[in-house]
Each structure stands twice: as C-alpha cells, then as structure tokens.
Amino acid sequence: MRFALFLAWAHIWRRPLQSALAVLGVGVGVGVLLVALSLANGFMDGLVRATLKAYPQLVLFSLEPTLPPLPSHPEVEAAAPFAATKALLTRPAEAGRGPGVDFATLVGLGAGGEALYPELGLRLEPGGIYLGAALMQSLDARPGDRLYALSATQERVELKVLGSFRTGNYLIDSGFAFTDLESVKRLSGLEAQGYQVRLKDPWRAREVGWALAGSRFFPQPWQDTQRTLLEQLSLQRQVLGLLIFLIVAVAALGVANLLFLKVVEKTPEIALLRAMGASRGTVGLVFALEGAILGVGGVALGNLLGYLLGLYLARRPLDLPGELYFLTHLPVEMRLADFLWVSGASLLAVLLSALLPLLRALRVRPGVVLR
C-alpha cells in the first residue's frame, strides 16, 4: 500500500501542470454545481417566504351558514375571519396628478388580522386600505389619498390609503390589498368566508388544517394553492443539477485522459515492476490511488470554491427584475446535504472514469513489453 501510494504521488508530481489542470477541471465543475444548487434553493425559499408574507399559510373555509368558532391548536400563532373579492380600484384625478385605475384582490380581515402578517406592519382601521408597493405605484397613490373600490355588482366603497407593503413577490405586490372585513362585506355582500391562520411552522399547514377542520371547515393549506409553483421549482432544480453535473462528468473524463496517457507512457515501467515481482493488484492500486487523489483534490477544491462564491453572492445578491422573476434579488441558501451528495457523486464519477486506464494497466504483459 505504501509503495503504491509513493508511486502514485510520484506520477502526479511528475506532470504538475497536467495534474493541476485535472484537479481544477473537477473543482470548477463541482463549484459551479454547488453554486447553482444554492441559488436554486435560495430562489425557491425566497419565493416561498416572500409569498407567505402576504399570503395565508392556512385557510379554513366555513361549511356552515354562520361562521363557527375556531378550535384551539398549539401550532396556531394567529387567526382572523376574512372575506376576499376582486375589485376595480380608482383614484380620482387631482391638481397635478392624473387619475389611477387598476384591478386588485381585496382581502378584508377581521379582529386580529394584523397578527397574520407581522412583516407587513398592517394597522387596519375601518375604511382604510393597504396597497402592495407595485399596486400603489400603478395607482400613483399616496398615504391619505381617497380611493374607490368598485365590485362586479357595481357596488362602490370609499377607502383611505393607510400605507403600502412590499413582499418581494411582484405578483402579490402588484395585485393584493388589505382592508377591514366590514368594507369587503359592504362592497361584495359577502359574509366572513372562514379564517386565515398563521402557524409556527408553515410546512405543517396541511396537517394542522385537517386537525382543525372537523365537519365545520374545509382546509386549504398554502402548499395546495401553490402546488404548481412548488413542483415547477423542484423540477427546475433537478434539471439544473443534472445539466451542470455534465460539467463534472467532462472534467472526470479529463482525469481519465490524464491517467490513460500515464499508463501508455509508463508501460515499460509497469512491465519492469511486474517482472520484479509486483502483483497486478499493486499496479492497479497505483493508478486507482492516482484517480482517487485527483478526484478528492478536485472535490475539495470545488467545495471551497462553491462555499466562497456562495458567501460572496449571499452578501452581494444578484438583482432581478420583479416583473419577470417575482423576486427583486436572488438569495442564496447553501445546504450541507447538497455539498455531501455533490461531493459523493463527483468523486464516484472520477473513480468510474479512471476504470478504463486502470484496466489498461492491468492488461500489460511484462514478457511481451520487455521482449
């Protein structure tokens, strides 16, 4: 074993530039893959967090004519009755400003509604409205302005702009507004449709929903309403990982090419070693150790590059146009599991690529070569 390791190191240091390029190729491939996965993780997590800033984690729709009381549950942090409707928001023209018109989903919250979305800083009052930041810009509205909400049945309600909120999800910021429950009732004629619920752990929304539902409510966790989005993001992450892993495969072939050239170059030495009593296993172990050393070096370098680049992008996130990508910047989320499976898969790819030159070394016949 020590003799084989000595020869493996000697072979690697004999051609330092080629060995360094092989390690660098694997390292760059692994680093790029880790960064891409971290960006995909951050995009998915950032989009979910941005969405849940102004989107209910759990909705319990009432199945009874009158809204029943909500049962208690240890996972529930806040709950409030609600009603939602589509409305046309208009702002009358003023001196120096033209009129503003846009459609929005108007969410009316009852008592305790501010606690559902603590990140938004809502302070609801009768006849007041909070607009998404993009919606507020579209209407050219300012705090204190008077808006008119018009329903499909031509009902009209006057609302006072109390402020705006920004989630980072452009679809919400441009199409949602919050007001009090009574204003929505007057506008749409709807009674409270159920409860919106905030949980300690949003990922347990489905479990908690069915525990609270009984025969009085129909639960709708956010994972169901956002299922298509979550599935698309998961699929994109898998495809992205597969495509970029091809970079690692190409780098692994570079290691195989280096080892193959070494086998051809060292064929007389291999024959001499065999003639002096070295076994096939020893010869094969030399080239197996070379592949392992180059692979481990490349994977270690790739992990370092991926981690450092991930830290850099976390401190200086890439800006995104919210109209296209829903988020205004691209967050980064590095996961230990990604580093482990990428390292394992990349090392396996390098070792498998080293099998061909290793088999070539094992087939060397000392008698034929020395003759």
Descriptive keywords:
371 residues; alpha+beta; 2 domains; six-stranded mixed beta barrel; two-stranded antiparallel ribbon; 14 helices; 11 strands; elongated; disordered C terminus
Secondary structure: elements and pairs:
Blueprint: H1 2-14, H2 16-53, E1 58-62, E2 76-91, E3 100-109, E4 128-132, H3 133-139, E5 146-150, E6 156-165, H4 170-173, E7 176-180, H5 181-188, E8 194-199, H6 205-213, E9 217-221, H7 222-225, H8 227-265, H9 267-275, H10 280-315, E10 318-319, H11 322-325, E11 329-330, H12 336-353, H13 355-362, H14 366-370
Parallel strand pairs: 3-7, 4-6
Antiparallel strand pairs: 1-8, 1-9, 2-3, 2-5, 2-8, 4-7, 5-6, 10-11
Helix pairs in contact: 1-10, 2-8, 2-10, 2-12, 8-10, 8-12, 8-13, 10-12, 10-13
Low-confidence blocks of residues:
367-371
Through-space gap between termini: 29 Å
The H/E string reads HHEEEEHEEHEHEHEHHHHEHEHHH
Q: What is the count of DSSP helices, taking H or I runs of 4+ residues?
A: 14
Quick one: how many beta strands?
11
User: Which percent band covers the strand fraction?
Assistant: 15-25%
Strand arrangement, largest sheet?
A: 2-3-7-4-6-5
**Helix-residue proportion:** 40-55%
The major sheet is characterized as: 6 strands, mixed, barrel
Structure write-up:
By secondary structure, the chain is an alpha+beta fold. It folds into two domains: 191 residues, no CATH class; 163 residues, no CATH class. Helix content is 54%, strand content 19%. The protein contains 14 helices and eleven strands. A six-stranded mixed β-barrel has the order 2-3-7-4-6-5. A hairpin with a 5-residue loop joins β5 and β6. α1 crosses α10, α10 packs antiparallel against α12 and α10 packs antiparallel against α13. The two termini are 29 Å apart. The C terminus is likely disordered.
